[in-house]
Design goal:
single chain, 10 strands, seven-stranded parallel β-sheet, alpha/beta, binds fructose -6-phosphate, Rossmann fold, 9 helices, three-stranded antiparallel β-sheet
């Protein structure tokens, strides 16, 4: 009798676990907005809603041109509506190797200038990999550990490389990688060179969260704007899951939102479908 009730208990526990996992899974949500400005405002609403539900959320953040307007919107929400960052913790995706934190092209500098210094976040709660650590491999392990110790990332903001990279996980890299040292591809060096005086000044190495580290986030929010990203966007959403487009791993992620402007959506085969889904959402499913 006891054996039977233990069996019933075990089966029910595994059924409940299965149901919980199923309920947490969502389709990749694709939101096409008329302009990068509208897209960034919507993205800011996604972040703001999370912070209202969970004031001590852990945010994963990105640098580059794409999220600049998102940060401006969040700063506006902070200044105008009191959006509170006092309990928030952040982890950035990546940092160049060899640049001191106060170097104007370092990602630490970028984050301070474009976001952190304008909001009420505690400096000790903001984390980026240390690109000048004496032992870089130990730094990668330490970074992974700190994310785990903070309880994992609730929402990871991601830009998209024109070659389909997320973080600095370039095509052909492992889709299971953890925070590691990477060599930037020639394409990425070229794409990022307009942020430096000369292409020779772009560092070739970085520390980046791995695709596996990104996949651990409870939610991902990908932003991509402009024609330059259209092919990568199509590969991310509609292509095969392949290391040739590291972002395509997100098709396996439990809850990813992709917000793009019309130009970045230009090569999607199913754009009418995504618009249809968006138009027919129930009020509580909307962010606007
Ligand atoms: C930046 C990052 C990169 C960028 C991507 C797009 O932290 O991880 O993946 O998001 O290279 O860069 P932009 O936005 O400059 O086009």
């Amino acid at each position: 009798m006891q054996v039977f009730s233990e069996y019933v208990l075990k089966v029910s526990a595994s059924l409940i676990r299965g149901l919980v996992i199923h309920l947490r899974l969502r389709d990749m949500e694709v939101l096409i907005q008329p302009t990068p400005e509208r897209a960034s405002e919507l993205a800011a609403r996604v972040v703001a809603r999370l912070l209202k539900e969970k004031p001590n959320a852990v945010l994963g953040l990105a640098t580059g041109r794409t999220p600049v307007q998102l940060y401006k919107e969040l700063i506006r929400f902070h200044k105008n509506d009191g959006l509170d960052f006092s309990q928030v913790t952040t982890f950035n995706l990546d940092e160049y190797i060899g640049l001191q934190p106060d170097h104007p092209q370092s990602y630490r500098y970028f984050m301070e200038e474009n976001f952190f210094k304008h909001i009420n976040i505690k400096p000790e709660n903001t984390h980026l990999p240390n690109g000048v650590a004496p032992n870089l491999r130990e730094e990668c392990r330490r970074y992974e550990r700190s994310i785990r110790e903070a309880g994992g990332i609730d929402l990871q903001v991601l830009g998209l490389g024109s070659n389909g990279h997320i973080g600095f996980n370039e095509p052909t890299g492992s889709l299971n990688s953890r925070t590691w040292i990477k060599i930037l591809s020639q394409q990425t060096v070229k794409d990022n060179s307009d942020l430096f005086d000369n292409i020779e000044d772009v560092p070739n190495h970085c520390i980046t969260m791995g695709v596996g580290s990104i996949m651990d986030a409870s939610r991902c929010l990908v932003l991509a704007f402009g024609h330059r990203k259209a092919k990568a966007v199509a590969n991310l959403i509609e292509g095969p899951i392949t290391a040739m487009c590291p972002a395509s791993a997100l098709q396996m992620h439990k809850r990813t939102i992709v917000i793009v402007d019309e130009n970045a959506a230009a090569r999607l085969d199913y754009s009418d479908h995504y618009r249809w889904i968006d138009q027919h959402k129930l009020p509580w499913q909307r962010y606007d």
